[in-house]
Automatic annotation (TrEMBL), chain A:
Keyword Cell wall biogenesis/degradation among record annotations: no
Stored SMART domains: CO_deh_flav_C
Domain FAD-binding PCMH-type intervals: 1-223
Keyword Transferase: no
Protein name per Swiss-Prot or TrEMBL: Xanthine dehydrogenase family protein subunit M
InterPro entries: CO_DH_flav_C, CO_DH_flav_C_dom_sf, Diverse_Substr_Oxidored, FAD-bd_PCMH, FAD-bd_PCMH-like_sf, FAD-bd_PCMH_sub1, FAD-bd_PCMH_sub2, Mopterin_DH_FAD-bd
Keyword tags: FAD, Flavoprotein
MF GO annotations: FAD binding; oxidoreductase activity
Pfam family of the protein (one): FAD_binding_5
């Protein structure tokens, strides 16, 4: 690990200003992904601003009947919250499908949104990667790409967003609230939070320098059957090949989002409108324009079968 | 153990990272914790993980370094009542926290019930993963009792129970290269007092 200095932030505004005002400064919350990357020198911050004292660890009801989740609420606390379990079951299901118990006890809501890709070429500092070393090339495009993205890719990057929680948050139309270094704030729809790689694959999301996530808000519950189905190479503690988050209603309508297939949670409102026609129609529309490799084209078939299984479960 | 830690350790021999490219001299930071019921005061390079603070500074070598990347669970300790990977957290992030390691759960003469159950059920072979397995196992039973859901929990609105599926799922962050998993599960079932 490269040397860095460390401070504990005293307010969200102070934290944002501390990071924005210093080259190489980063926020640290749970640290489970950042420290892993720092050990590999994929991340090498010169200064860490620890957010643990900011009181951002509460889940509050909103006036609109939703929930405001503090940025530092742990994965375990969020998944265990009675309101989330009862009314946003797909979120609990997605969270407990990811990582291990130890990691979920430390990982935070905001940090989980910011976790970086697990593309093996991003992790191997001996190989080119436009996300880790802009301009160096993409070793994944002609490499082992079985785990990687099938849609929304560019010729510079085929990495996936690796998480589960964000797939459910995208499905639930969550928004991300932030504080800027100048003290102003804004709200970002989760749909607009993660970006596609395009020609700037080193940018995972649309946050500005020093912009700090303070909460994630869920709109009021929408009812329906909540299902999160994750397909992976082992039964537990593995990243998704494909995951399906769904809320399905008795009349056959609903919402669906896919994980493990793109640089962001993949949801198409046009595609999910076809749910009454079955999985095939939804997947055909959602994955129109997909550009898989020979190694990962199976993911589209797998998405179709996984969604069909989810629909069957909802009807059972 | 030395309550004040090894204050003479340099950044390099603590973290094993070699001299930094920027040539920055590490500024040591004070860290106070309660470790296994004992108050400790350390002065640490901010790079020091909680794992290295336990092993290299407090000489609590029960906690093991396996992968050092949060993948194997050998470093599992209990902080403020919750199990975490001590390799993926900085000691400076735990100023004021209460840490329990395997040394704090029981002793040779006074085993924790989970330690005794691991012995009885042969829940290990080489033993390297065992301290992490036991810290995790103790925490898993508390998590189930507290109603924390898992991927194996069928009904999210019901209180989870101790079943083989729940144990396997919740222990998936602790790898055992010797493959003692079934005996570890037996030990946990016995401690839980459950028929599973």
């Amino acid at each position: 690990m490269k040397a860095f200095t460390y401070e504990r932030a005293t307010s969200p505004e102070q934290a944002a200003a501390a990071v924005a005002g210093r080259d190489g400064a980063k926020f640290i919350a749970g640290g489970t992904n950042l420290l892993d990357l720092m050990k590999l020198q994929i991340e090498a911050p010169t200064h860490l601003v620890d957010l643990q004292d900011l009181g951002l660890d509460k889940i509050d009801a909103t006036r609109d009947g939703g929930l405001r989740i503090g940025a530092l609420v742990t994965n375990t606390a969020l998944a265990s919250d009675d309101r989330v379990r009862a009314q946003y079951g797909v979120l609990t299901r997605a969270i407990v499908a990811g990582a291990s118990g130890q990691l979920r006890n430390k990982a935070t809501t905001a940090g989980n949104l910011l976790q970086r890709t697990r593309c093996p070429y991003f992790y191997d500092t001996n190989l080119p990667c436009n996300k880790r070393a802009p301009g160096s090339g993409c070793a994944a495009a002609e490499g082992f790409s079985r785990q990687l993205a099938v849609i929304g890719t560019s010729d510079q990057c085929i990495a996936t967003y690796p998480g589960d929680m964000a797939i459910a948050l995208r499905l639930l139309d969550a928004t991300v609230e932030t504080v800027m270094p100048d003290g102003t704030g804004r709200s970002i729809a989760l749909a607009d939070f993660h970006r596609l790689p395009g020609d700037q694959p080193w940018l995972d999301n649309t946050l500005a320098e020093g912009e700090l996530i303070i909460s994630v808000t869920l709109p009021k519950p929408i009812g329906g059957r909540h299902i999160y189905r994750k397909v992976r190479d082992r039964r537990s503690y593995a990243f998704a090949l494909v995951s399906v988050a769904a809320v399905l209603h008795d009349d056959g309508t609903g919402r669906v989002a896919f994980g493990g297939v793109a640089h962001k949670p993949w949801r198409s409102e046009e595609a999910e409108a076809l749910l009454p026609q079955g999985a095939g129609a939804v997947v055909e529309r959602a994955f129109a324009g997909a550009a898989p490799t020979d190694d990962n084209k199976f993911k589209i078939t797998l998405a179709d079968r996984t969604l069909a299984s989810v629909i069957a479960e909802a009807r059972s | 153990m030395t309550p004040t830690g090894n204050d003479n350790a340099t950044a390099d021999n603590v973290t094993g990272s070699g001299s930094s490219a920027a040539g920055l001299a590490a500024t040591l930071m004070p860290v106070g914790m309660e470790v296994n019921g004992m108050t400790v005061a350390l002065s640490l390079d901010p790079r020091t993980t909680l794992l290295d603070a336990m092993r290299e500074h407090l000489r609590l070598n029960g906690t093991k370094k396996g992968c050092d990347h949060g993948q194997c669970g050998a470093c599992t300790v209990i902080v403020n009542g919750q199990r975490i990977n001590s390799c993926l957290t900085l000691a400076v992030m735990h100023d004021g926290d209460a840490v329990t390691t395997i040394e704090g759960l029981g002793t040779v003469d006074d085993l924790h019930p989970m330690q005794a159950a691991f012995v009885k059920h042969d829940g290990y072979q080489c033993g390297y993963c065992t301290p992490g397995q036991i810290c995790s196992a103790v925490s898993v039973l508390k998590e189930i009792a507290a109603g924390v859901p898992s991927h194996a929990t069928a009904d999210l609105t019901a209180t989870p129970t101790v079943t083989r599926d729940e144990i396997s799922e919740r222990m998936s962050g602790n790898l055992c290269r010797c493959g003692a998993y079934s005996n570890i599960a037996e030990a946990m079932v016995e401690v839980a007092g459950a028929e599973a």
